[in-house]
Amino acid sequence: MSEVKTTAASSCASSGEFVPKIVMFCCNWCSYAGADGAGVSRFQQPSNVRVVRVMCSSRVDPVHIYTAFLEGADAVLITGCHIGDCHYVNGNDKTLVKYKFIKSMLNEMGMEDDRLMLRWISASEGQQFAEFVTEMVEKVKALGPSPLRKDGVV
Amino acid sequence: MSAPENPAPAGAPPAGKPPEKKPPAPSTVGDVLKGSDIQVGGKYIGWSVRDEVRKEGGSGGLVTSILAGALEKGLVEHVVVLKKSSQYEAVPVLTSDVEDVYASAGSMHMLISNPTKYLRQFQNDATIALAVKPCDMRGIREQQKRNMIDLDKIFTIGLNCGGTMMPYKIRKVTEEVYGVNPDDVRAEEIEKGKLILETTDGEHHAQSIDELEEEDNGRRENCRYCVVKIATNADLACGNWGVMPDYAGKGTFVEVMTEKGAEFLRNAIDGGYAELKVASEPAAEARGKVNSIMLKMSAKTKEEVFVPMQSQTMTDLKKELENCIGCGACRTVCPPCACGTEAKCTAFNDPVDNYDISLFHMIRFLHLMDSCVGCGQCSDVCPADIPLARLYRKFANPMQDELNYVTGMDDRTPPFFEIKLEEVQ
Amino acid sequence: MANANAVGAVAVIGGGIAGVQSALDLANSGYRVYLIESKPSIGGVMAQLDKTFPTLDCSACILSPKLVEASRHPDIKLMTYSEVTALSGDVGNFTLTVKKKTRYIDVDNCVGCGDCLAKCPKKVDDEFEEGLSKRKAIYFQFPQAIPKVVTIDPDNCLMIKNGKCGNCAKVCQRGAVKYDLKDEFEDIEVGAVIMATGFEAFNPTILEAYRFDHPDVVTALQFERYTNASGPFAGHIQTSKGELPKKIAFIQCVGSRNPEINRAYCSSVCCTYAVKQSRLIKDHHPEVDVAIFNIDLRTFGKGYEEFALRAQSDGVRFINSRPSGVDVKNDGALSLRYEGAESEVIHEEFDLVVLSVGLEAPKSSVELAKILGIELDKYGFVKTDLEAPTETSRIGIFTAGVAQGPKDIPESVAQASGAASKAGALLNEARKSLETVVEIPPENPIGDEPRIGVIVCRCGTNIGGVVDVPAVVEYASTLPNVVIATEEMYSCADDTQSRIYDMIQDYKLNRFVVAACTPRTHEPLFQQTCQEAGLNPWLFEFANIREHCSWIHHDEPENATHKAKDLVRQAIGKVKYYTPLYSQSLPLVHNAVVLGGGVSGLTAANELAENGYEVDLIEKTGELGGNIRKLESYKEKLETIIQKAQSNDKIHIHYNSVMENVSGSVGNFKGQIITDGKEAKELDFGIIIIATGAHELKQPGLFGYQENPIVKTQLEFKEAIDKNESGFKNVVFIQCAGSRNDERPYCSRICCTNTVRNAIQYKEQNPDAEIYVLYRDIRTYGMYEEQYTKARELGVHFMMYDKDEPPVVSGNTVAVHDRTINLHFNLDADCVVISAATVAEEGNRDVGPMMKVPLTKDGFFMEVHPKLRPVDFGTDGVFVCGLAQFPKLFEESVSQAQAAASRACTILSRDALLSPAELSSVDESVCVGCGACKDVCPYHAITLEEKVVTQKGLSFKAVRSVINPAACKGCGCCAMSCPTGAIDQSHFDNVQLLSQVKSVFYFEEEVN
Questions:
Q1: Contact B344 C930 (CB under 8 A)
Q2: Residue of chain B whose alpha carbon sits nearest to that of A72
Q3: pLDDT score recorded for residue C1006
Q4: Which chain C residues contact residue B342 at CB under 8 A?
Q5: Chain A, 99-118: which have a CB under 8 Å from a chain C CB?
Q6: Would A33 be classed as within a structural domain?
Q7: From what superkingdom does this record's organism come (chain C) (predicted)?
Q8: CB contact (8 A) between residue C981 and residue B148
Q9: Which domain holds residue A125?
Q10: How far is CA C809 from CA C341, C700, C726, C915, in A?
């Protein structure tokens, strides 16, 4: 499943300053709505996050997370409905199970703790969403590029 | 070649300890048992009624007699036996001929013969009995949890295991450390922390296991930190630990773990294949003591191996994996791996991606956190000599420890199949 | 009954949760619905709430999908900002005149961009925020308002009032603002009407003692906005000085249980919402002292008692006292006056006082009732009968929700479904006569190579004011497979849809990407446009460059543009792997099974039969009627219900029978009816309603029960007094016998009401008898409070005992410690009536697993969502009602049984079941049958089956995972759990998601 890399016409990262790239998986029902809510309420946040929408956080496969890291993500964030609020009964419980394992594994690999985070964000928590993004971008900036990052990723 | 059943392996009380004052307690109590006396949870000492089996078989030939009885009385259709090709090597053979079973008496325990994977091929068509090491059984149970093996169709006799050695290595050690021609070795024995080789001329040659292992000339690394020494996950857990001197070499200690185990044992008694007596309290205690000494040693080794690994960086990990040629042998041989030829670890692993650590390894590390049984076969087969077992355990240990989950020991649901991990806060 | 020419449409008045539920149920069972809401947006009070009890679910999260569904439903016509002004005609053929108040906005042209809001100079109190913050004179009712069009508030608009300003019209690029628009009137033809007008919160101004004029005395509804993360304080609880309050008091029954102000009823929800709010405070600030001042704590719903216990263990103080007033000290501090345990007056200071205001009928109800010609009760709630809780005094006009009386959300939702069922049954002949039939044009061939069209939306200045849209368009057009990229001012506008249509045709596009706002609201619109243009709707992808980009990176336009490009690239990365998807049409059997022949089961069966479906009613005993069968006072009501069931030839009653060996799933269940333990009848059925009831606890030794001859249970006593048995001089009722204890922490809900009813009945029969009720909290919720008042007026004595010091029955004496006056009494008794707990049937433990539905730890059935889906399960096609779900009163059981029937009708009325398109599916050649997927599926959609598999030319039998498309809901957790990758979820498959992830990144060397 190889991809021909597309090129960007312009880049604002030309200053040489480290610009983290963060991939965030959002479930359709709560956290994506929370991200929308942040927009509706204009909660300003750094522009480093790229959201991938899934129907339920339990859809997020370790393969997706690893691919994001191996491709060059400096952090991967998973967000879902609060425990008990899952649109699919208990998807987020299952997300939590896998997350615990993946987190432990990345730690064992020597990956810094903050590079993979799971956070429950409800549809009304636009501010929490923005705060989470801000906080993570700050943390990742302090950490520097991910040790799994491919060379040359912008 | 294997060295299971070593009652006092490396680290055991050093020679020169003052002799015990009291005579050792007897291994058994009471009369020879009837089949109906056998109960789940019971601990017994038994032996074959056949002289030749007692003579050829290790420790009284109980295991051979149970297998032979099961086959002849139709409890199973096949038995897996080991056919020796030399003192150091053997191949597993599926047989319905009881003579093959008797001929295998005294065979080595299956060394890295991976019963899990070939059972998966045959078990749906037939009932099979076999003897297994604890890790073999752990693999079988992990496959069972993934619907690949039907435990109802197999009968397992677990054998105590203190660790195994690679055939090529023991040949090399025999030649280089012992100064003995490997082909002259007739038997091996572990006693008081020493590995003793008996040559055809009747001579005994001894070396300290501790010293051997210091030079990596001893047991395979994963065996040294293995946490299961008695195969309580099988139908019967057999071995010579706890067999006191009065029965040494003549009897096998057996603990009945399941109703099926009891049934097979009753069959062996009632069919006139074996005799059993109740194991005495001191005998059971002695067995437990050996086990706990072994486990302590394992815990120590585990610390020695894995604590330094905690400070490893991703660069170190990349270095460990850099020679991987992507042959996939580690996966093919892996006992708990239930996937077929296609799996996420291979399907999404495209060499063109040229990642520093391949998706194959990333996914395998994760999957084995849930299922690694610590058998070490991945390391054995790796053509690039990557210490895979150590790596898989490095990843598996923290979560398995946190969840108090020992793979392949019981029917507990694999963590990945759980909706919610109650233990995880 | 409606005439044969009835109109297959229903008007639902009120767009709160009850109205929305009625509308959805009706629209989903073949009727056209007009949903009429007087406010600019649907959603009602629930949209204002923060969290909901007892699950602390985010209110917005669970409500908005329902609102969106209602707004998109082809058979629901939203009439917001509208009021009913006249009604004529009769049942089956009503004509409603609806006044569509002008918003001064051309709603067809307003795209909801909100550019006008920024330019409006006039700030007014925001009603949605309960006056805690300001909105503009041109406004959205709330940010997620549906429909998303602005409204001008003419009382505050400077242009309308003074003719000066006009900013909004100037800034609106769509020309949608029109100050000269007038109200319009529209007549609609409907067969039935449902009045679900909800409530207004009590305005505490008239209770001067509570000092609502003080800025730190707030209503509970205001407090909802305090805790809400999107509220005026972003969820930070604060006093008027902006500090975190150290002490917060809740005063209960403000505007409830107060006959002096004509609010004698209990509002039912305040105790639990106060508990909820107290827990939310404690969750964030455990150090804050929270006290709830109450007369009785009424947490009587399912899980509510446990919820309150949790608050207690969090340290919330529950004080059994109604404060006489709030004093404002010289320094402005607040002090509460209340009576302490020793009858002394206590003054305690608090930093914030929350008034738990009651629910009351909207003032407009009186006028509306007049228009509709229906009766109201003395409080303004819609009058109904006990056995017909959804029927008003006029045939063809139904009611649901708080309009009928105070109740919480699950009951409102259940009643709303019940009303839908009644309306549906009434108009059964006309079902589907007005249903919208969507015609789908044939699809264009899509070919092999992706040909992608891209539209980048400016959304007025919303996107275009921050993101360099032309640069994004230019960039998009350089990406592989992109055939055409253009920009639009408003991509959601009608004219743009026709341009998209043309683009698809002209450029032979087989994929389409719109970079605009959020797919959560706008994806269906573009999918529909694609479909009209012959493109499968699943070949469309959205890039959210507004909510996720321009709006949140306002100050860094360069980065926002950069990100917008990335987002477009991501969307293209995903869309090129899209494949056309189709819903599968699955066969469906159009009949039902009802388990249980009590009031609930019978009602459900009757409803289903009246809606036109065959029903097999399975009763385990030889008689119908359940718990109340022996009660004389219910005889007539019960006989009517039984008669109805027995005489309806669509209902097949199986006595002494049980259902066993159920397999299959919604639409296609199979099971066996076992009669008399032997005879088995195979039955295919489409849905099943579980109404297996519950029973009164009969525990020997409980307060002397079955040991002391004077001790009876409530039902036994009721049976006796119904037969006019008398002769008891001293009757002592003991409440909470076996409930609210360690073994059964739940409140059995119905005992207090039954006790006061029985006490009244006996007192009226025997005025000389002395009656004592020993209770912990009297929980006569809603209108039953009047009964409590009446009982006291009749001279029934009430004594409150403590959980840890229960009454002791010995011989003819009951010893009790009255905790309110701190005195011990030895009461003479010749009859002791214990309000024994209502306990779940043991048989539930068999039915649950058989139907793949869960139970609570107390053994009652656990509905899928306690708030908004009170009779549904996660397993489709299985419903629950009555005591099987939780203890409830006769009328509540009736209403819930109707609800279950209504939910069932939404399935049975379809010609075929349609699976969702985004299903998971199994690749049999890769699956190894390991079962990792099976248990993680919350819908039990996955089974392991032996199949003949052909691989590499060989055929063999093997176990494989099989997904039932009728049960799969498309969450995709099975795809994640599958180790082989055999399971994948369409539209979110691994290849698509990985491509999207990989498209996030690009490489420096490739830039040049």
A1: no
A2: B355
A3: 46
A4: 925-926, 980-982
A5: none
A6: yes
A7: Archaea
A8: no
A9: 22-139
A10: 26, 13, 21, 60
Residues of B in contact with A110 (CB under 8 A): 312-317
User: Structure tokens of C594?
Assistant: 């009802």
A83 at B interface, C-beta within 8 A: no
Cβ-contact C431, C31 below 8 angstroms: yes
The answer to whether residue A86 sits within a structural domain is: yes
**CB neighbourhood size of C184 (10 A):** 11
pLDDT tens digits, one per residue of B69-81: 999 999 999 999 8
Across the interface, of C552, C569, C918, the residue whose CB is closest to A42 is C552
CA B44 to chain centre: 21
Our count of domains for chain A comes to: 1
What are the pLDDT digits (tens) for C147-196? 999 999 999 999 999 999 999 999 999 999 999 999 999 999 999 999 99
Three-state SS annotation for chain A = CCCCCCCCCCCCCCCCCCCCCEEEEEECCCHHHHHHHHHHCCCCCCCCEEEEEECCHHHCCHHHHHHHHHHCCCEEEEEECCCCCCCCCCHHHHHHHHHHHHHHHHHHHCCCHHHEEEEECCCCCHHHHHHHHHHHHHHHHHHCCCCCCCCCEC
Put simply, the answer to whether C981 touches B347 (Cβ < 8 Å) is yes
Amino acid identity at B396: A
B316 and A CB contact within 8 Å? yes
Is A41 within 8 Å of chain B by CB? no
Mean pLDDT score of chain C, rounded to an integer?
Answer: 94
Instruction: Collect all residues of chain A within an 8 Å Cβ-Cβ radius of residue B398.
Output: 104, 107-108
Q: How far is CA B325 from the centre of its chain?
A: 29
Q: Residue B108 — very low, low, confident or very high, per pLDDT cuts 50/70/90?
A: low
Look at residue B112 in the predicted model and tell me its pLDDT: 60
**Closest Cβ–Cβ partner in B395, B416, B420 for A108:** B395
Cα–Cα distance, C177 to C107 (Å, whole number): 9
Task: Give all chains having 3 or more CB-to-CB distances under 8 Å with chain C.
Answer: A, B
CB C31 within 8 A of CB C116: no
Question: What 3-state class would DSSP assign to C57?
Answer: strand
Contact call for B348 and C994, based on CB within 8 A = yes
- A152 in any annotated domain: no
> Is residue A70, in this structure, part of any structural domain at all?
yes
Look at C977 and A94 and tell me if their CB atoms are within 8 Å: yes
Candidates C781, C54, C23, C790; CA nearest to C405 is: C781
- Determine what percent of chain C is predicted with pLDDT higher than 70: 99
The partner residues of C334 in beta bridges, in order of sequence, read: C328, C350
| Domains of chain C and CATH, by start | 1-100+183-199+361-437 (3.50.50.60), 201-359 (3.50.50.60), 452-575 (3.40.50), 591-693+852-908 (3.50.50.60), 696-839 (3.50.50.60), 920-998 (3.30.70.20)
Best of A14, A89, A137 to disrupt the C interface (most C CBs within 10 Å) is A89
Task: Give per-residue pLDDT as tens, A31-45.
Answer: 999 999 899 888 999
pLDDT tens digits along B333-379: 999 999 988 899 999 999 888 899 999 999 999 999 999 999 999 99
Apex C738 CA angle, C733 and C741, nearest 5: 120
DSSP state of C381: P
C965: enclosing H helix or E strand: none
Q: Give the CATH number, domain containing residue A119.
A: 3.40.50.960
Q: Do B353 and A2 touch (CB under 8 A)?
A: yes
Give the start-end residues of each E strand in C646-725.
Answer: 651-654, 657-665, 668-675, 679-685, 687-690, 694-696, 711-713
B146 touches chain C (CB under 8 A): yes
Please state, in angstroms and rounded to a whole number, the distance separating the CA atoms of residues C487 and C474. Answer: 10
Say how far apart CA C27 and CA C14 lie, in whole Å. 16
Inter-chain touch C143–A94, beta carbons under 8 Å: no
User: How far is B48 from B37, CA to CA, in rounded Å?
Assistant: 18
